[in-house]
Structures are given as structure tokens and as C-alpha cells.
Amino acid sequence: MSERPLTILFMPESAYGPTNNCIGIGDVLRRRGHRVVFAAEASWRGRLERLGFEEDLVDLAPPSTDPAEQDAGQFWKDFIRDTAPEFRKPTIEQLDTWVRPVWEELVNGARYCQPQLTQIIERTRPDVIVEDNVVGFPALVTAGVPFVRIVSCNPLEISDPQIPPAFSGYPAADPAGWQAFRDEYARVHRPLWAEFNEWVIEQGAPPLPDLEFIHKGAVNLYVYPELADYRRARPLAPSWHRLESSVRQTDEKFTLPQALAAGDGPLIYFSLGSLGCLAATPYRYIVSKGPLHEEIELAPNMAGAEFLPQTSVIPLCDLVITHGGNNTVTECLHYGKPMVVLPLFWDQYDNAQRMLELGLGIRLGTYEFGDNELRGALDRLLADTALHRRLAGAAVTIQEHDGLRKAAGLIEQAAG
């Protein structure tokens, strides 16, 4: 623990996963007496102050006057909704039509907010800067203070020749197709990367690593338990530190609705779209309905809301159905819960494949599975007592490592 109060500036990606991860770590630092400032995207206004943080927010694009577009993370919700048809394609075909446009949006945001970030750093005078994102911001690495990078996506983002390429969803045991995917990724992204790298250098920052859109930090943290991590050809540098998990403790408590509490059968946490095929199963469901909550009608064996305190819900459940975002996957492993994973985009394919090949869950084709296939997956996972014992033991180990406080300590050390 640092002997003096520090000013720590967090800049998370606008999406819920990275922002919630920074909230969890930042809360530990705040309780240790440090000043924690969030340079989050402007749609998070008010949400972070309520948790005890300072807000000095940025716009990643010209501000919208539409109140509906000012909800937290709304930009990425809309982007994903509008590009959803791309998710039906094989991952290698998504590189040009979905992954590249995502990088373009991220790069444009970095360019747009560069003057704002420079001013925020001048105002806050941080002792250390922490970024949880996939794209770099030159102002963060030219501020003259230690820079800490957090990777809260699947660790394939940290490339190595012995592991599959990120975003592919390809098996770790079968390198067939790896090089073709890497070649296509380079073909599609090199012009954008070269242009961005040139701009980054013009801002006074060091060159970016080849085909990477973000710098490494003096300290680098990644969130993935050893149980699920990949075997690498090259050990990571000493500046890299694995967090077994990073589960925030800021979510409100959750009480199981009486109708479900009085029922029988396993309890499943469900955070996806169509519910029809689950209404006839002998299971109970807690449903996170998300932005389409007004269009979703729940069956008698279900209860839910637009938003749920996920880290308070998962411990109550026997199984989780998820798209495979890194935060949800690592939270499930933290609490020892098997998963059915239905990936849509980005690193969700990699997490889905990893859970499948390690026997920690079942991966289904999001647009191809039949009702019987999903019900069968639930039945098999719930009945697998050996898997439940294995996950329960892994959860004890993961929780003992206390990733939140390890991350906070490493950030304090970086500032020193």
C-alpha cells in the first residue's frame, strides 16, 4: 500500500466490461485513501460520482443532443445493433466488414478526444494513469507519469506464435487456419494501423508495436485465471501480471424474487435475447433483458429486469448462459459456474472456444442451434457433478488470489 495519497486517473473503454473492471479496482484504491478520477466517455456522467469517484469525462465524437443516445455505453450498443448482420459470418470474413470498422471507430475516438485528454491531465495532475482499452491515446503515454495498461479482453490480444490469433475463435490445439487468419488480419488492417501509428508519433508518443493499436505500459495487467490461460512459446515480460479475476464489489445486493425462491430446480442466469425455448424447461431463470427489455416477455419460470447486479446474481445460480464477454466469463470462473456460450463478436469467439476445449462449458453456434440443442446443453452441464466439483475447487483458488487488491497494489507500486 502506498504511504502517501495518490491521484490515479482511469480511462476505460466505454463498454460495460472495461468500465466495471476499472470501477472495481478504483474502489479498492479509493478506500485506501487515494483520489480516483475517471476520464470515462461522457455517457457515464453521474454514474461514477455516485460510487465516490471524480468524473472528468471525454467525448469520443461530437456530442449528441438526443437524450436516448446519452445513456452509458449507448454508442457501442447502437453500433452493435446496426452491424449485427455481420455476426452470422465466419470470423475471418468479419475482419473486413466488422472488426476493421470497430477499429476505425476507436481510432477516430482517440483522435477526437486527444485535446480533451491533454487538458484533463493538466487539471488532475495524476501520479499514475491506468487505461483499460484496446486502442491507445497518446496523451496518456506522454504525460510524464507511469502508464498502466489493463487487458480485460481474452489474453489472445497479447499475441504469441503458439496461440490462436485473436478474434478467430480457432482451437488452441489445431493451428490449421491460424496463418491464413493472421495474413487476412494484416491485409485488412495495415493501412489503418500505419496511418494511426503516424498520427500517434506526431503527438509525441513512441511508435506502436507492429499491427497493435495500443502501447504497452510500465506495468501491464490482464484478467484471466491460470486455469484457462494459454501456453505460450515466449514467456511474457516481467512487466506483465495475470489477475486471476477482477470482480467488483460495488454491485448492489440481489434478492431472489419470491416466485423463483419458492420454486424448485436449478437456477440459471441468462443475459441474451430469445427466451421461448427455455419456458418449457424444468429450470428457473434470472434474466438480464438489456436494451430490448420492453420487447421481452418473461415466462412464469423467469424473473428479470433491464439491468441486474451481475456479480450479486451469478453466485446464486447453478449455470450461466452468456455471449462470452471476458468480464462475464472470468466472473463465472471466479464463482465456479459452468457456461453455455453463444458468441457474437470480438473476443467472445475466443472465450467460447476456450471454455469448450477446456471442458468448462459448451459453445453453441449463436444463429444455428436448435431448441433441443440448447436444452440438451443445459441438461448435460447441470448433471455433470465432476465439472461442478472441479469448478468449485478452481473458484477457491481464484478467489484466494484476490485480483482486485493485487491490481490496486501494482498500480500503487507503479506510481512509486
Provide the descriptors you would attach to this structure in a database record.
alpha/beta, 7-stranded parallel sheet, 6-stranded parallel sheet
Strand order of the largest sheet: 3-2-1-4-5-6-7
In angstroms, what separates the terminal alpha carbons?
A: 10 Å
Overall pLDDT, averaged?
91
Give the SSE string: EHEEHHEHEHEEHEEEHEHEHEHHH
Number of strands: 13
Instruction: Determine the oligomeric state from the structure.
Output: single chain
For the sheet with most strands, the description reads: 7 strands, parallel
Q: Report low-confidence residues grouped into runs of 5 or more.
A: none
Q: Bin the helical content.
A: 25-40%
Structural class: alpha/beta
Determine Rg (CA atoms, Å). 21 Å
Strand content: 5-15%
From the spread of the alpha carbons, the general shape counts as globular
Tally of alpha and pi helices = 12
What is the gist of this entry?
The chain has 416 residues and is an alpha/beta fold.
